[in-house]
Amino acid sequence: MTKYIIKRLLGIIPTLLVIITISFFIVRVAPGGPFDGERALPEVVKRNIEAKYHINDPLIMQYGRYMFDVLRGDLGPSYRYKDHDVNFYIFESLPNSMILGVIAISISIIFGITSGMLAALRQNTWVDYLSMAFAVIGISVPLFVIGPVLQYFFAMKLQWLPTSGWFTSGDGWKTVILPAITLAFAHFATIARLTRSSMLDTLRSDYIRTAKAKGMKNSTIIFKHTMKGTMLPIVSYLGPAFAGIITGSVVVEQVFRIPGLGKFFVQSSFNRDYTLIVGVVIVYSVILVIMNFIVDILYSLLDPRITYK
Amino acid sequence: MNLLPKHKKPLQTTNEFDQVIVGNSLSKDAWRRLKKNKMAVISVVIVIIYILLAVLAPVLPIYPYDEIILDHQHLKPSFVKNAGQLLIEKRMADLYTQAWRQERLTLSTEEDDMLWAWIDKNEANKVWDYMFIEGNKQLAEGTFTFNKAEQRTLDNLQRKLKTDLQITVNKIWYTPVEGKKQNIAKLPVDTIAGLYAEMIGSTSEIEIEQYSREIEQQLMKTIKTQNVGLSEEEYALLLEKEIEGLSKKKHDALIRENVLAKIKSRAKEIAASDLKEAATDESASFPLNKEITIKGPLSADVKATKMHERRYYLGTDNQGRDMLSRIIYGGQVSIAIGFIGTITSVIIGTILGALAGYLGGKVDYFIMRVVDIMYGLPYMLLVIIAMAIFGRNILNLFFALAIISWLTISRMVRGQIMSLKNQEFIEAARSMGAPTWRIIFRHLVPNSLSIIIVFSTLRIPSFIMTESFLSFLGLGVQAPFASWGSLVGDAVGGMTLYPWKLFFPATAMTIFLFAMNFLGDGLRDAFDPQSKNQL
Predict the structure, then answer these.
(1) Does residue B384 belong to the interface with chain A, where contact is any CB pair within 8 Å?
(2) How many CB pairs under 8 A join A and B?
(3) Scanning B110, B201, B383, B410, which has its CA 20 to 30 A from the CA of A229?
(4) Which of B225, B327, B385 to mutate to test the interface with A (most CBs of A within 10 A)?
(5) Which tens digit of pLDDT belongs to each residue from A199-236?
(6) What would be the CATH architecture of the domain defined by B323-531?
(7) Taking the alpha carbons of B40, B43, B49, B54 in that order, is the dihedral positive or negative?
(8) Is B338 in the A-facing interface, judged by CB distances under 8 Å?
(9) B377 touches chain A (CB under 8 A)
């Protein structure tokens, strides 16, 4: 097990290197620099700026310098915003995205598993149909439709919740509800469907029949025996779910005006702010890779049949 | 030597009871199961309707999706009222509300409170609707009358609505004193320039010189945008080169284009002023389609409709474009990207997956490592970067999506082919000396087709969602083109005042995605009944 963990940890490094390399080069190859504004800068000014940011060095040298800096944890200066460097902006906005993401994934797991289990235990009753209808909606309706629609009904028509903003805007925790639900919806749906089908499978397996034959209490069978078997496909879905939450937050932060990393990302890709884009991608990738790693370990803990060498 | 008794080969296979045995293939069986699934059948119908609408969009009787009519900004969807009636209503509701604010139109205290509550809640639409009904009632009862200024604005609007025309000039004809009528687009340049000169009272030489200069200016503009930061002399040199490079024919063609456009716009002006009179004194009936003499020997085929008699069943957007046609054309873009993107990614994925699965060894290792690493990437973010950098157009979007979405299919095909490659029929093919490509593409891939089809169907909605996601962020399809995502994205800002802009494209898109998902599920259950209810 320890060996496997170490091996998986080492496997993370090439992935991250590839990510940094791809995003670095994709951005440099691009036509047009960050300083090509509407108005042409005077020649001298332009040259000075380029010298300051080492834009005219050979690409390979820029790459080497950048890699070295990133490994030290320094993501460099922002090309667009002069006051602070990339690290500052990322660490200012990352916590907001993290809070949103964690709440969203918790909502989708808790509600997804509950409604999936109810659907499986009450198969072919209205409970089943209702939760599966919800799940189909969640899978078919894109979150940039769900978000505005929720905003329209709950914030504008009913005025129960604020339309946009974040903790600092005075409405407190209420601002989090709508964006978190929006972000959670698609994953809630998938988790509910997965739980239902996996639970139905498990309930029909031999060891559950044995447990029933032994006269165990129904609740013990469900929560102790069935749960463990049911969780496997859900845990393996969590990896893609994290990735989805990260990309989804780009839209949700746009719709609900949340000062998170996603909003930064869209802005900086319009501005061609090279270092900021690459910085955001690296941060996202690190989170994603770590999450995938945790999911893998969890998976092996849940299923003793899986052995890693 | 044949010892067995000779008999005719039976045409049909029969069992021991002489009953005909009909062969059953996987696809036939799947089709039978699919037909039993009600939701899947409904979905097939819906998908076919959508595809027909998207394909037939250019011949459908809808307004062009990029036709901007600024007078018609943000009109409500309506089946019974045309644009003019809606405009009048809007203006009247506005006047009533103003009058209420100035306390010339009095309501009961409860009504006042209700209206103020609506205003506090930003529900201007409700206020206007209420005021329109209430105002009309009071106007009929005589408790409220418009003052002179208001009456005048209403009259002016009425007149404008009656006389505003939308005119398109199709062909312009030239009828010489003696000779046949000719389409001027087919005349030589000098003649056209001469005609235009006559129209505005100058000579053809002056005109041609004028246009040469205009073309120079146009060229200069393109040169300047292509090469930034040169001196004036360098620009002049480039321009000279460019003009030398233009052949006489091309030069003439450019001039012809310019002159024709001028004549056309002139013809439009003349026709507009003629027809406006006709519309005012109601001597002509609209829509009208006839030939109108412009000046001297020139005449034009003119089509004129009353601009404010247009009907917008799904309302209009912020530039007065018809939402119905924007949604249909947006669907065209979205569906096309969904299908073409899926096909491309399936082809890439199938080829790579098949190669990896069949060849094994180093090829397999290499392809699967690439897939592994790409799985670890936040690919959506890379697509966003790529779109921001390489320009936001449909082609780039489509490439960016196709490149990242072949991963899952390649894994699935690889697994399927690995399980197939040791079966007897492959053994047989190999021992008969079939080349590798033939074994892969004639034997293995067709046998994996069912999983490929099922996967593709489920892939299309996710492709459409991704495309719309990017368009929503403003990184996908650009105006004047539309896609469902960009329509929703444009609507989010003003959704309290103009909810139809959000509602209709979102519904159109959701129905299609629903249908595609149900169809995909149905196909999967049909091809693999064991997988029922699995994700």
Answers:
(1) yes
(2) 132
(3) B410
(4) B385
(5) 888 888 888 888 889 888 888 888 888 887 788 888 87
(6) Orthogonal Bundle (1.10)
(7) negative
(8) no
(9) yes
